[in-house]
TrEMBL record:
Its EC number is 3.1.-.-. It is an enzyme of class 3 (hydrolase). CDD domains: YqgF. One of its GO terms (molecular function) is nuclease activity. It comes from Anaerobacillus alkaliphilus. Keywords: Cytoplasm, Hydrolase, Nuclease, Ribosome biogenesis. This is Putative pre-16S rRNA nuclease. It comes from the Bacteria. GO terms for biological process: rRNA 5'-end processing. Belongs to the YqgF HJR family. Transmembrane segments: none annotated. HAMAP family: Nuclease_YqgF. Residues 1-103 form the YqgF/RNase H-like domain. Could be a nuclease involved in processing of the 5'-end of pre-16S rRNA. The gene is ruvX.
Length: 138
């Protein structure tokens, strides 16, 4: 069984999954959110949860630098509640402060073009969120 990591944004959802031993996180994809028919996002997530045999979900929680939770954090908490309701899986909210910044720096260091970075940044952030969780629980 694997753990799924999600970097939830208003336009995209970065998706990562652990290996079967729960040691490493791998980027799976970036789901472009369908604002006209959000049910399509849930169908895609459901398919991934089934295919990857997911038994737990880690959702990035964007906190303000002072530790408070703003509108983005509240939206992620609502998303996590919906994941729990739809899929009956344990949910872990994981502090994701600066993961997107760290992911961007890593991709720049790898000399990736701006266009390519834009297409993988959310997936990389999901990897960093999930890996942080996996490292803390080992």
């Amino acid at each position: 069984m694997r753990t799924l990591g999600l970097d939830v944004g208003t336009k995209t959802i970065g998706v990562a999954a652990s290996d079967e031993l729960g040691w490493t996180a791998q980027g799976i994809e970036t789901i472009k959110r369908n604002l006209e028919d959000p049910e399509k996002d849930w169908e895609k997530l459901s398919k991934l949860i089934t295919e990857l045999e997911i038994n737990k979900v880690v959702v990035g929680l964007p906190k303000n630098m002072n530790g408070t939770i703003g509108p983005s954090g509240e939206a992620c908490q609502q998303f996590a509640d919906e994941v729990k309701h739809r899929f009956n899986l344990p949910i872990i909210m994981w502090d994701e402060r600066l993961t997107t910044v760290a992911a961007e720096r890593m991709l720049i260091a790898a000399d990736m073009s701006r266009k390519k970075r834009k297409s993988v940044i959310d997936k990389m952030a999901a990897v960093m969120i999930l890996q942080g969780y996996l490292d803390s629980s080992s």
